[in-house]
Amino acid sequence: MNPAANEASTIPADIEAMSYEQARDELVSVVSRLETGGASLEESLALWERGEQLATRCESWLEGARRRLDAARESAAGE
């Protein structure tokens, strides 16, 4: 894991409360803003950190979905 991801490990409450779709959409917006440039260094760093937090939230949602699918497959295989 990269150092920035470690700093982003504390997820703010507003991001923690987001659905996967909300977090993904905001992450797309953050990436777009970073790609277009024009932000100051401080703004860019803040956007980067928020993007890391949003990406972590999306990964968390996807991991939960993987676990649920695996459990459903195991249950179906056991029947």
From TrEMBL:
<keyword id="KW-0269">Exonuclease</keyword>
<protein>
    <recommendedName>
        <fullName>Exodeoxyribonuclease 7 small subunit</fullName>
        <ecNumber>3.1.11.6</ecNumber>
    </recommendedName>
</protein>
<comment type="subunit">
    <text>Heterooligomer composed of large and small subunits.</text>
</comment>
<comment type="function">
    <text>Bidirectionally degrades single-stranded DNA into large acid-insoluble oligonucleotides, which are then degraded further into small acid-soluble oligonucleotides.</text>
</comment>
<dbReference type="InterPro" id="IPR037004">
    <property type="entry name" value="Exonuc_VII_ssu_sf"/>
</dbReference>
<dbReference type="InterPro" id="IPR003761">
    <property type="entry name" value="Exonuc_VII_S"/>
</dbReference>
<dbReference type="GO" id="GO:0008855">
    <property type="term" value="F:exodeoxyribonuclease VII activity"/>
</dbReference>
<comment type="similarity">
    <text>Belongs to the XseB family.</text>
</comment>
<dbReference type="Pfam" id="PF02609">
    <property type="entry name" value="Exonuc_VII_S"/>
</dbReference>
<keyword id="KW-0963">Cytoplasm</keyword>
<keyword id="KW-0378">Hydrolase</keyword>
<keyword id="KW-0540">Nuclease</keyword>
